[in-house]
Amino acid sequence: MSRAMIRRRVWLAALATLAMAVFAETVAAHGVAKRDALFVQAINGPAIGPFLYLGAKHMVTGYDHLLFLVGVIFFLYRLKDVVQYVSLFTIGHSITLLAGVLGGIHANAYIIDAIIGVSVVYKAFENMGGFDRLLGFRPNTRAAVMVFGLFHGFGLATKLQEFTISRNGLVTNILSFNVGVEIGQVLALTAVLIAISYWRRHRGFLEHSFAANTVLMTAGFILVGYQLAGYVHG
């Protein structure tokens, strides 16, 4: 084994270990902040501005959603493709967010968040060429992004369903929250795209892309494990 290969594997192991340590700590803090939760429950009537802010904040700080989107856009070089895939994700999570909160459709939050973790693992595995090597073909990525978007929307819905929200102005507020999520998504993805575009200019991008997606997959497995543990003990 060459020295370059050894260094690469050491670097990969270090990144994976760091991801496990940092991400495991972060997972426990995910959700709606207590201060925001109290504010939401105190609102009686339309409050467009506050719900726009809360939606944007939840997406910008929603590491599970962002990890999946990072995987989705990792190898997308054209803005047209980025818009197409992100739009599919947006349609999916908007449907289930609105159906969950306005339609009263409930699902176990731990199971939904575990599936969201699976979506991160799935996309990282696809980026690593895992399906091509294992199955000899790659599943339809557009369909997968759309389907996983539905679960991500339920993940957003379960966070809001934990609180007693006034029916007065509910439709306006939830629509505002959804628009806020889209605003936060655009802001977060803009920053990610700038970072990835800068990285792509360097020769090391393709060389280290496998390692980067291994770290992404590690984070997904941590999320799955944490949520399943919560389901069993909860």
Written overview of the protein:
The protein is an all-alpha fold and 234 residues long. It is 80% helix and 0% strand. It has one domain (3-233). The N and C termini lie far apart (47 Å).
Count of the domains: 1
By secondary-structure content and strand pairing, the structural class works out as mainly alpha
Strand content: under 5%
- Report mean pLDDT, rounded to a whole number: 84
Q: Helical element count?
A: 10
Q: Choose one word for the global shape.
A: globular
Number of strands: 0
Largest sheet: none
Search tags:
234 residues; 10 helices; 80% helix
Brief write-up:
The protein is 80% helix and 0% strand. The chain is mostly helical.
Helices and strands in order, then pairings?
Blueprint: H1 3-27, H2 34-42, H3 48-60, H4 63-73, H5 79-102, H6 109-127, H7 130-134, H8 141-161, H9 170-200, H10 204-233
Helix pairs in contact: 1-10, 3-9, 4-6, 4-9, 5-8, 5-9, 6-8, 6-10
